[in-house]
Request: fold
Amino acid sequence: MRFQAPRGTEDVLPADSPKWLHLEAAFREVTRLYGYQELRTPTFEDTNLFLRTAGETSDIVTKEMYSFQDKGDRPITLKPEGTAPAMRAVIEHSLCPPGTVLRLMYVTPIFRYGRPQKGRLREAHQVGLELVGSASAAADAEVIEITARFYQALGLTDIEVLLNSIGRDECRDRYREAILVHMESWLKDQSEETRDRTLKNPLRLLDTKDEATLAALQGLPPVTDFLEEDSRARFEQIQATLTDAGVAYRVSPEIVRGLDYYTETVFEVQSTKLGAQSSLCGGGRYDNLVKELGGSPTPSVGVAMGIERALIAMEGERIRVPMVRPDVFVVQATPEAHEVCQRVARHLRAGGVATMMDIDGRSMKSQLRQADKVSARWGVIIGRDELDAGAVQLRDLDNSDQTPVPLSEVVERVKERL
Reply:
């Protein structure tokens, strides 16, 4: 029986892994510049963690979670997003005492049972940020700025930051009423399930992709018309800070995000290279989340960025990632050179030089083909004449130029050329 990867999952093959490494390295470098530290949380958590945070009417909870009872009859869920586990860890380990600010970053798989499509897998991967402990508008702007800098570091140019504010409780309560009044006639024609979900959280209608629902929403005033005065001032301050940082954005009232824990700022970054599902990432402020999970009231803001979606956008913009290639391939031109070749390879690796060699005693011609296949930059060739002379032939494998080098100087000469 032949096995295949489960539907909705993908293998990252050796030819593709350099793209992943490049993306993760870019993310780690950008976040390092802003002082973020890495947090790693478990792959699975207590199911109730996500019921409390994502919202019982969210698509994640109602349709997409991989949940099961473990052998101790405990409710367990493979994490569908990274923020709730991060906040659970912050509370459990007292990482952000009152009056302090904590900056976290993460790289993680997430699991959602949806219809698999390009860039939306059942096992996907994210990089993300959480800035915990600051209520400042500058905190929101920092997270958005880092997000934009990350995509710039990848070389993406065809992107757009979409920004909105959904206010606090007073704003959202008034806006929910406005949505229900506006959609009253539309609701009468919907299923009982749709009516129930809409009555529980009318804001979710704004996140729809259904054309009939979008048509019914036409004429609804934007949520920004309902903002509290201090929320409006805060939203304007975020925009001013982003403008000063040179981060281009567009205020987009239809952006609400799909998780219940967001308050005030919400944003997405979109790319035209992703087709109809254009979102690269999403994030926002969640000032009530830590308290909802049993911690002290702690203002926070964050973002989650899909790795697969960023790679598709890079492919769409034809961004080339540097090839991972060994520096040297040691070629054994005669069987008697085997031990010397192994010692040379060890010395090169000890000197920080990525080095490969044949381990099966193949012919010199076959070894050179191997070197070409892995795109090695230099060849170190040792045959009978080189053994007698205490030397090697250092060959430039890009143009076949060859130079004799004393055996004792191989590491130094190779490093000079690198």
Remarks:
- The chain has two domains: 17-168+228-316, 328-417.
